[in-house]
Specification:
alpha+beta, five-stranded antiparallel β-sheet, 5 strands, globular
Length: 112
């Protein structure tokens, strides 16, 4: 049972790493400063450090590895909130959805 759980967690980490890379690329295309550093090789990412500057001194950092998952949000260098585990993933999803909605609104305005 534990080997199966460990493999499932590794799979979750790999999925998160791919998603973080895509999110960083998408944010860069929208003009945000965002980076995603991956630990491990391209085939088998063992973790990642994602950092994005959302403007107005608002920064987010998402760390994922075999040792855990965390989300830290700060403004002007002061930590506002820190989440770990499932809460960190939910916060990442919330921010990604908000940025996606913002991008869709901008595209609608441009095409109108």
């Amino acid at each position: 049972m534990f080997a199966r759980l460990a493999e499932h967690y590794r799979s979750v980490v790999e999925d998160l790493v791919m998603s973080l890379r895509a999110l960083a690329d998408g944010l860069q295309q929208q003009g945000f400063a965002a980076t995603c550093y991956v630990c491990g090789d391209d085939r088998d990412g063992h973790g990642a450090s994602f950092v994005a500057d959302l403007g107005d001194g608002h920064m987010v950092r998402f760390l994922v590895s075999d040792y855990g998952i965390s989300w830290v949000e700060s403004r002007n260098g002061h930590e506002l909130v820190k989440f770990e585990g499932a809460e960190a993933i939910q916060e990442l999803e919330r921010v990604a959805a908000a940025l996606h909605a913002q991008s869709a609104q901008a595209a609608a305005v441009i095409s109108a």
